[in-house]
C-alpha cells in the first residue's frame, strides 16, 4: 500500500523535514484567529533557532475549555466546513470535551501514525487483533482499527466494555483466538479478573501481546497484565490533538516518537523552557502534518515525561526515533485523616500482590462519629485464604500509607459486574459527606 510518508532513513533526514514542516505549521497557525498578533514578532525563517521558536505561546487545554464549540471553530479552525472529513473528541475525562475537525489530508497522516505502531511492536501479517477501545467519535479505536488494513494486520472491531459486555469479549477471545489484545490497562485487568471468576485462564489463551494506551502503565500494572494474560505488554502514546505519536519496541525502554510527524519538546512546567534530556518536564507537541484544520503550535498535553535520545533496542525504530518515558506522576490522590494517598502508588501496592485480582477503594464518612474511613473492597485469586489475605492487605496499607483500612473480600466477579458500564474502572470512589 502507498503511504503518504515513508519511514525516514536517518535522524538527519528527520531534521531537514522538521525544518520544512515547522514553517508550514507556523504559516497555517497565523491564519487562525486565536494566533493573530501572537506570532507577528517571530521570524519564520529562524524557527530552527530554539530562542526564536520559544517565543511561540504554549497552548493548553484550559485555553480551549473556555470556549464553546462555535467559539473554538471560530478561533482555531482554518478549514471550511465543506472540507471536514470527521471530528475527533478530546481524550480528557474531566471538563468540557473539545471536538476537533479533521480533513481528508489529516486522516491520511493519522492512519499512518496509528498504523506505524504495528511493525514497531512486531505485529504484522498473520496477527489478529481484538480491539477493545471505544469505536466512535474518540479516534483511538476506529482510526487504529482502520489503519490495520494498511499494514496487513487482522482486526476484530469489538469496542469498549460499555458497548460490548465483558463476558462477550471473553467469549470472542475464546472463539476467534486473536493473537493481540488492544485496550486500556484497567480494562485488561478487569477482563483478567472476570476470566478468573469464571474459571478461564487467560494465560493459556491465544493472546501473545497486550497493547495498552490512554492510561499510565506502571511497572506493577505491566507485570500483573503480563502475568494474568501470559503475554508481552506494550505501551503506546497518542492524543486527539495530534494522532498516535509513538510506540514501544521489544526493548520496552520507552515510547519511540514519530518525530517526522510530530515536533516534540519537553519543557519546564513553570517556565516553559526546555529541560535537559532525561529530566522530567511537560510534553509540548506541534503536529507537522495533521494540522490542516486545527494548526496547533506547542500544544501542552499535560503529560509529565522524560526525553530519551536513544533506545537500548536495535532496528529502524531505535535508530531513527528518540523516545519519551512517562514519569509515572499523577495528580490523582485522596486525602484521608490528613494523609495524602497517591492513586498510582496505591494501585501499585495492590497489583504487586499476586493473590489480589482487583480492588476498589471507597472513602466514606461514619454516620455516627463523622470520622473519615477507607473501605477497601478486594477480590482474590481462587484458592486464596480470605482471612489471611484480609489481614495481609490491611497490614500492607497501614505500613505504606499510615491509614488503617476496613478490608472486605467480595465474591469473585463482583467488581467486574460493578465496573461493567465504565470504560475506565472506577477504583477510587469518594463518598464522603
Strand count, sense and closure of the main sheet? Answer: 12 strands, mixed
- Regions with little confidence, pLDDT below 50 for 5+ residues: none
Mean pLDDT: 90
Provide the CATH topology of the largest domain: Rossmann fold
Number of discrete helical segments: 14
Q: Give the count of structural domains.
A: 2
- Assign the CATH superfamily of the largest domain: ANL, N-terminal domain
Helix/strand-derived class? alpha/beta
Helix content: 25-40%
Beta-strand portion reads 15-25%
Overall form: globular
Distance between the termini: 59 Å
Radius of gyration: 23 Å
DSSP strand count:
20
CATH class of the largest domain: Alpha Beta
CATH architecture of the largest domain: 3-Layer(aba) Sandwich
Written account of the structure:
The structure is a single chain. With 433 residues, the protein is α/β, with parallel strands linked by helices. The chain has helices at residues 11-30, 50-53, 61-65, 69-76, 104-115, 117-120, 139-147, 166-176, 185-197, 219-229, 316-320, 343-351, 386-401, 414-419, and strands spanning 59-60, 84-89, 99-103, 128-131, 154-157, 180-182, 209-212, 232-239, 243-247, 255-257, 262-267, 280-287, 299-308, 323-326, 333-336, 339-342, 356-365, 372-380, 406-409, 428-430. It is globular and about 70 Å long.
Amino acid at each position: 500500500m502507498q503511504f503518504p510518508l515513508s519511514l525516514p532513513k536517518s535522524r538527519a533526514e528527520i531534521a531537514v523535514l522538521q525544518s520544512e514542516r515547522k514553517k508550514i505549521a507556523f504559516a497555517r497557525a497565523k491564519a487562525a484567529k486565536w494566533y493573530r498578533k501572537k506570532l507577528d514578532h517571530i521570524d519564520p525563517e529562524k524557527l530552527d533557532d530554539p530562542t526564536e521558536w520559544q517565543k511561540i505561546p504554549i497552548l493548553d487545554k484550559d485555553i480551549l475549555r473556555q470556549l464553546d464549540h462555535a467559539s473554538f471553530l471560530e478561533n482555531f479552525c482554518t478549514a471550511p466546513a465543506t472540507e471536514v472529513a470527521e471530528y475527533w473528541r478530546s481524550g480528557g475525562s474531566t471538563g468540557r470535551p473539545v471536538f476537533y475537525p479533521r480533513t481528508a489530508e489529516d486522516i491520511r497522516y493519522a492512519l499512518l501514525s496509528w498504523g506505524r505502531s504495528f511493525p514497531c511492536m512486531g505485529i504484522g501479517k498473520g496477527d489478529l487483533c481484538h480491539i477493545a477501545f471505544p469505536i466512535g467519535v474518540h479516534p483511538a479505536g476506529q482510526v487504529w482499527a482502520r489503519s490495520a488494513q494498511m499494514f496487513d494486520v487482522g482486526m476484530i472491531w469489538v469496542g469498549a466494555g460499555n458497548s460490548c459486555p465483558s463476558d462477550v469479549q471473553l467469549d470472542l477471545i475464546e472463539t476467534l483466538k486473536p493473537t493481540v489484545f488492544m485496550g486500556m490497562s484497567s480494562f485488561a485487568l478487569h477482563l483478567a479478573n472476570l476470566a478468573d471468576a469464571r474459571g478461564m485462564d487467560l494465560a493459556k489463551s491465544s493472546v501473545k501481546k497486550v497493547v495498552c494506551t490512554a492510561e499510565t502503565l506502571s511497572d506493577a500494572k505491566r507485570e500483573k497484565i503480563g502475568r494474568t494474560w501470559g503475554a508481552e505488554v506494550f505501551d503506546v502514546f497518542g492524543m486527539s490533538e495530534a494522532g498516535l505519536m509513538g510506540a514501544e519496541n521489544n526493548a520496552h525502554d520507552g515510547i519511540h516518537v514519530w518525530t517526522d510527524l510530530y515536533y516534540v519538546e519537553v519543557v519546564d512546567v513553570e517556565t516553559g523552557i526546555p529541560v535537559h534530556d532525561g529530566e522530567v518536564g511537560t510534553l509540548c507537541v506541534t503536529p507537522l502534518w495533521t494540522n490542516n484544520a486545527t494548526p496547533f503550535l506547542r500544544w501542552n498535553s499535560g503529560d509529565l515525561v522524560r526525553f530519551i535520545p536513544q533506545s537500548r533496542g536495535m532496528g529502524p525504530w531505535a535508530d531513527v526515533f528518540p523516545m519519551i518515558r512517562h514519569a509515572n506522576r499523577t495528580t490523582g490522590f485522596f486525602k484521608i485523616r490528613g494523609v495524602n494517598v497517591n492513586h498510582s502508588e496505591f494501585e501499585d501496592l495492590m497489583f504487586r500482590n499476586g493473590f489480589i485480582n482487583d480492588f476498589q477503594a471507597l472513602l466514606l464518612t461514619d454516620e455516627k462519629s463523622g470520622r473519615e474511613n477507607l473501605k477497601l473492597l478486594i477480590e482474590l485469586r481462587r484458592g486464596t485464604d480470605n482471612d489471611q489475605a484480609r489481614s495481609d492487605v490491611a497490614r500492607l496499607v497501614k505500613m505504606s500509607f499510615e491509614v488503617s483500612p476496613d478490608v472486605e473480600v467480595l465474591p469473585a466477579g463482583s467488581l467486574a459486574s460493578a465496573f461493567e458500564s465504565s470504560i475506565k474502572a472506577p477504583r477510587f470512589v469518594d463518598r464522603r459527606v
